[in-house]
Design brief:
With 306 residues, the chain is of the alpha/beta class. It is globular. The protein folds into 2 domains: 8-47 and 108-304, TIM Barrel (Alpha-Beta Barrel); 51-106, 2-Layer Sandwich (Alpha-Beta Plaits). Strands 7-1-2-8-9-10-11-12-13 form a 9-stranded mixed beta sheet. The protein has a two-stranded antiparallel ribbon with strand order 3-6. A two-stranded antiparallel ribbon has the order 4-5. Helix 3 packs across helix 5 and helix 9 (235-246) runs parallel beside helix 11. The longest helix has 13 residues, at 144-156. The chain has helices at residues 64-68, 93-97, 112-120, 123-129, 144-156, 171-178, 193-200, 205-217, 235-246, 264-269, 285-296; strands spanning 8-17, 25-30, 51-54, 74-76, 81-83, 103-106, 108-110, 132-136, 160-165, 183-187, 221-227, 251-258, 302-304.
Length: 306
C-alpha cells in the first residue's frame, strides 16, 4: 500500500481493549485535541507536539537528567524533578539520561504500516471476538489525513473500525475519515454553546453540525456524554441533550460517563494545575440514574459507564 501521509503522531497503542467498541480491540491514541475540557482525563493528549512527562515516585534524585539538559530546564525538588516548560525544547536528552523511568516522552511518530504491523499481532482476537480497531485520542481528526489512511488500511485487512471523536473538525476532514469507519463514538459535552465554550474552550456549533452530518450519512453512532456535576448534569441540559440525540439517525446507545479525578496525577506529572481538583466530586448514583431515565424517556438505550 502506498502511504499518502508518511507519519502520524501517536501517544499509545492499547491492546486488548474492551471498552472502546465491540469485541476485543486495539485502540490507537492520537496526539492533539482542539478542546481543553476542564475535566479532561488525558491531558497528555491535548498538545499536538511531544511533551516530557515525569513520575517522581520513581526518581532517585541522581541529577543525570539535570546535567543532560542543555537549556537548564530541569531542577530538583524535594519530590524529585521539575521541568520549566517555557524553556524546555523536548529534545529528549533528559529521557535518555534517566535510567529509572522517571522521565518519558509523550508522543512518537509512526507510519501507517508501522501501526498496522503492531495491530496485526492481535488480528486473531479481532476475528474471534467481533472486535477491531478504534482510533481515539486526543482528537483523531486533528490528523485526519493520516487517520484516513490508517483506517483504510484497517479495512483492507478486514478489521472493524471505530472513530472516537469530539466532533470538532472541518466537515471535509470528517467526511474523508468516515469513508473508512464502521461505528462512531461521539461526544456531546454540553448543549449551550456559551457554556460549552467556557468549559472546553470552543463553542459546540461545529460539533452539533457534524453529529447531524454523521446522522445523514447513516453511520452507526454511540453517543458519549460525560456527566460533570455542576457543569452539565442539570435537568435542562440533560433534556436538551436527549432531544438533540433523539433526532439523530443510527444512534444505537448513549453512554453516560461519570466524572472522575483520574487526571490529577497526570497533570502533576506535566507540571499543570488540575482545574477541578478541589471543586467537583464524582456524580451521585441517584443523579446518574435520573439522567438515565430522562434520556431513556426519549426512546434511547442508555448505559452508565463506557
Amino acid at each position: 500500500m502506498c502511504e499518502k501521509i508518511k507519519k502520524g503522531r501517536i501517544i499509545n497503542i492499547q491492546r486488548y481493549s474492551v471498552h472502546d467498541g465491540p469485541g476485543i480491540r486495539s485502540t490507537v491514541f492520537m496526539k492533539g485535541c482542539p478542546l481543553t475540557c476542564l475535566w479532561c482525563s488525558n491531558p497528555e493528549s491535548q498538545a499536538l507536539q511531544d511533551e516530557i512527562i515525569h513520575r517522581n515516585s520513581l526518581c532517585e534524585k541522581c541529577g543525570r537528567c539535570r546535567e543532560a539538559c542543555e537549556t537548564n530546564s530541569i531542577s530538583e525538588t524535594d519530590d524529585g524533578v521539575q521541568i520549566n516548560r517555557d524553556t524546555c525544547v523536548t529534545c529528549g536528552k533528559c529521557v535518555e539520561a534517566c535510567y529509572t523511568g522517571t522521565l518519558n516522552t509523550v508522543g512518537s511518530e509512526m507510519g501507517v504500516e508501522e501501526v498496522i504491523d503492531v495491530l496485526r499481532k492481535d488480528s486473531l482476537f479481532y476475528r474471534n471476538s467481533g472486535g477491531g480497531i478504534t482510533v481515539g485520542g486526543g482528537e483523531p481528526l486533528m490528523q485526519a489525513e493520516f487517520v484516513s489512511d490508517l483506517l483504510e488500511a484497517c479495512h483492507e485487512n478486514g478489521w472493524h473500525t471505530v472513530l472516537d471523536t469530539c466532533g470538532h473538525a472541518a466537515q471535509e476532514k470528517l467526511e474523508k475519515v468516515l469513508k473508512h469507519v464502521d461505528l462512531v463514538y461521539y461526544d456531546i459535552k454540553h448543549m449551550n454553546p456559551q457554556k460549552h465554550k467556557e468549559v472546553t474552550g470552543l463553542s459546540n456549533d461545529l460539533i452539533l453540525k457534524n453529529a447531524e452530518l454523521i446522522s445523514r450519512l447513516e453511520i452507526p453512532m454511540c453517543i458519549r456524554v460525560p456527566v460533570i456535576p455542576g457543569i452539565n448534569d442539570d435537568e435542562t441540559n440533560i433534556c436538551e441533550t436527549a432531544r438533540f440525540i433523539s433526532r439523530l439517525k443510527g444512534v444505537n446507545q448513549v453512554n453516560l460517563l461519570p466524572y472522575h479525578k483520574g487526571a490529577v496525577g497526570k497533570c502533576y506529572n506535566l507540571d499543570r494545575p488540575y482545574p477541578l481538583e478541589d471543586i467537583i466530586d464524582a456524580p451521585r448514583d441517584e443523579d446518574l440514574s435520573a439522567a438515565k431515565k430522562i434520556i431513556e424517556s426519549s426512546g434511547l438505550k442508555v448505559q452508565i459507564g463506557g
